Amino acid sequence: xxxxxxxxxxxxxxxxxxxxxxxxxxxxxxxxxxxxxxxxxxxxxxxxxxxxxxxxxxxxxxxxxxxxxxxxxxxxxxxxxxxxxxxxxxxxxxxxxxxxxxxxxxxxxxxxxxxxxxxxxxxxxxxxxxxxxxxxxxxxxxxxxxxxxxxxxxxxxxxxxxxxxxxxxxxxxxxxxxxxxxxxxxxxxxxxxxxxxxxxxxxxxxxxxxxxxxxxxx
Length: 218
Fold this sequence. Notes:
The chain is α/β, with parallel strands linked by helices. It has two domains: about 5-145, Rossmann fold, CATH 3.40.50; about 160-210, Arc Repressor Mutant, subunit A, CATH 1.10.10. The chain has helices at about 15-25, 40-50, 65-75, 90-100, 110-125, 130-145, 160-170, 175-180, 185-200, 205-210; strands at about 5-10, 30-35, 55-60, 80-85, 105, 130. The protein has a six-stranded parallel β-sheet with strand order 2-1-3-4-5-6, sandwiched between helices. Helix 8 (about 175-180) packs across helix 9 (about 185-200). The termini are far apart.
């Protein structure tokens, strides 16, 4: 008797990308996409109604990024394993993915080659690291050993990060308030706190920071 296929949630804001990845995954007898989402909020909502073993999250999605969704999934659905998909071979994004609870980081440019291996490794409880990520890990370990430093924790709260992302995407305080279900005054307070914590002065500086932090695409 065949074992049940692993149940997968696939989240990417590009329908064509989701379709292509789904074809790759569903062609395998041990893997099955059971839910799709176009952003992080949809992904979290889908998990509430559909049993899932593995969530594959695009790192850069509107409204809520894959990193933000990964943190929330890790907190609310700790048995769900997480893979991050990214266009960028970027050390900061890679380390942020690990800190957010992901077990692996897959580059979209080689997803047709790496995705299946990454899924199976993650489902076995093993990390999946592409070659560049291994190099980054070793370099980071050596640097920290030399300097005695740890990676800095995120100084923003999850809510401040949500507000920052939406500010950087050009939403007004009223629109952000409606999206997050909070008052415009609370949005303004979060924005003020974020500017103070980061030592920044205006929306443009916040947008630049959001791009560097992987919250939005450049």
